[in-house]
Amino acid sequence: MNRRKFLTSGSTLLAGIFVAKNPLNVFADHHESGDHPHGHELPKLRYDYDALEPHIDKRTMEIHHGKHHQGYVNKLNAAIGDDHRLADQSIEDLLQGIDKVPMKIRQAVINSGGGHANHTLFWSTMIPGGRELKGKVAEALQADFGSINAAYEKFNNTAKTHFGSGWAWLVVDDKKKLQIYSTKNQDSPLMKGHTPILGLDVWEHAYYLKYQNRRTDYISAWDNVVNWTQVNLNYTTAMKG
After folding, report:
1. pLDDT at 111
2. Does residue 120 sit in the same domain as residue 153?
3. Which spans in the chain are helix H?
4. Which of the two residues, 35 and 151, has the higher pLDDT score?
5. pLDDT at position 108
6. 40/72 Cα distance (integer angstroms)
7. Do 84 and 110 belong together in one domain?
8. Which of 55, 137, 161, 241 has the most beta carbons within 10 angstroms of its beta carbon?
């Protein structure tokens, strides 16, 4: 989370941004909830692989989206197989009801389904040039953390200090309050009954080609491409239930 973007406002909303039915349905202009009629599908990006440079490099985006995310989708579809009860659910419903998934495939759904959901949100909350923080989510950060600066510090420290692979999250919890925390591997806040509205991937595959072991540099660079317009949309949608 970029301190400058937290403390300033002013850019207009991205022209042509579409309204999603729920915070993860951010690719609705391509297909419903990023899911294929016969299973889950890799969502298309709203920008080219090189569009986030120099902050996120083209080669990392090609591998991260085209290989890693595609792999999660493939493994999720394989785990669900011909179980139409599961195959017909959105990824959000599948993870929110993870306790109802058969034990023999539950961990595979957590790993690959979480990877699919987490990355789908991740791609949608980045945009070339970034967007300024403003609107209802800015007001909520001030209210729930005491100050914008306090929220900024908590998110960045959470991302920097998370041990091993995982994610740093800004979520709307079950009491309609904002929380910041991390999860391991591909665990999703959806499994806790929380709605993720911003997530930062801190797996090494997200940054190692460009930043090697310098996770802090990667986090600082990512600040420059955060799409706060989308995060604000995610927040207002989550607050509507």
Report:
1. 98
2. no
3. 3-7, 58-63, 70-80, 84-87, 91-96, 103-108, 114-124, 136-145, 148-161, 208-211, 215-222, 228-239
4. 151
5. 97
6. 10
7. yes
8. 137
* Counted domains in the chain: 2
pLDDT (tens digit per residue) in 141-175:
999 999 999 999 999 999 999 999 999 999 999 99
pTM of the model: 0.86
**Cβ-based neighbour number of residue 226 at 10 Å:** 22
CATH number at residue 161: 3.55.40.20
Which of 204, 196, 168, 207 has its CA nearest to residue 184? 168
Residue finishing a domain among 66, 95, 124: 124
Domain residues for 107?
32-42+55-124
For residues 56 and 225, what is the distance between their CA atoms, to the nearest angstrom?
9
Residue whose pair of structure tokens reads 């790993």 in the numeric block? 111
Cis bond upstream, residue 102 (ω within 30): no
Which of helix, strand or coil describes residue 238? helix
Q: Alpha carbon 109 to chain centroid distance? A: 17
Q: 137 and 176: one domain? A: yes
* 218 plus 154 within the same structural domain: yes
Average pLDDT over residues 14-34: 37
**Bridge partner list, 172:** 178, 195
φ, ψ for residue 76, nearest 5 deg: -65, -45
